[in-house]
Design brief:
51% helix
Length: 72
């Protein structure tokens, strides 16, 4: 059975996960799971306020601000 190679560059959300790892978990040792969850929430809350930044990270110029649904 043929299985295609793993291609994260073809999946735009992988670019956001890369940014998440760079900003939140890279070279970071959290004292507790609660601290990790807090740092993760802060990352997504910041990016939720800047949908244009998310689009620039995932490399999508096909979507516009009007197409975005911002979670609250």
């Amino acid at each position: 059975m043929y299985l295609p190679t793993y291609s994260p560059w073809l999946n735009p959300i992988e670019m956001l996960w890369r940014q998440f790892r760079r900003e939140v978990t890279h070279c970071e040792l959290f004292q507790s799971v609660k601290k990790l969850i807090e740092a993760s929430k802060n990352f997504f809350e910041r990016h939720n306020l800047m949908p244009e930044k998310v689009l620039s990270v995932i490399g999508s110029n096909a979507l516009t601000r009007q197409n975005l649904i911002v979670c609250t």
